[in-house]
Amino acid sequence: MKKSTFLKIMIASIAIVALIGFYSCETKEPCEKNNFGTVIMTNHTGQVIWVDCTQEGSEYNDERMLGLGQETQYQMKPGRVTEWAIEAWDYPDGSWYTDTYYLGQCDVHDDPWTNGKKKSTKNLEKFDVLKIEITDIKSHE
């Protein structure tokens, strides 16, 4: 076999192997690569509200105001997270309504806040929150 034919076959073989390797690599979604889940909070209460989403054990707050029909997204590490919501007229010192659940990696928890949700007792607890940061939490029955 001539050197040029052998060289062409080798180059073609290397190119095929490289293409197969390139296409067989599994690309990771950003949520897999960066280890997070997404919480989407939407305001369907008929009034302006403030919302927050916190990681269990964290005192970091990222409170956001939502107008009628507006939504916001939080990227959270997998684990237990708590959503918080309060009417704008009662912010920041009033009673915050909460919903706590487990969020998995790449989960998308789309959570509309409605007037009925805050009055529900299923998986909801009412807390008193002082100032903008959570400084004193007391459970109400």
- Uncertain segments: 119-141
* Approximate shape: rod-shaped
Helix content: 10-25%
Terminal CA distance reads 88 Å
Q: Summarize the biggest pleated sheet.
A: 6 strands, antiparallel
- Kindly report the name of the CATH homologous superfamily: Carboxypeptidase-like, regulatory domain
Number of spatially distinct domains: 1
Structural class: alpha+beta
Q: From the alpha-carbon coordinates, what is the Rg to the nearest angstrom?
A: 25 Å
Strand order of the largest sheet: 3-2-5-6-8-9
Q: Tell me which CATH architecture applies here.
A: Sandwich
Which fold does the CATH topology refer to? Answer: Immunoglobulin-like
What portion of the residues fall into strands of 2 or more residues?
A: 35-45%
Number of helices: 3
Indicate the mean pLDDT: 79
Any key phrases for this structure?
141 residues; alpha+beta; Immunoglobulin-like; three-stranded mixed beta sheet; 23% helix; disordered C terminus
Tell me about this structure:
The protein has a single domain (30-140), classed as Carboxypeptidase-like, regulatory domain (Immunoglobulin-like, Sandwich). It has 3 helices and 9 strands, in the order H-H-E-E-E-E-E-E-E-H-E-E. It has helices at residues 3-24, 30-34, 115-119, and strands at 37-44, 49-55, 64-66, 71-76, 79-87, 95-103, 108-114, 124-128, 139-140.
Would you summarize the structure shown here?
The chain is an alpha+beta fold and 141 residues long.
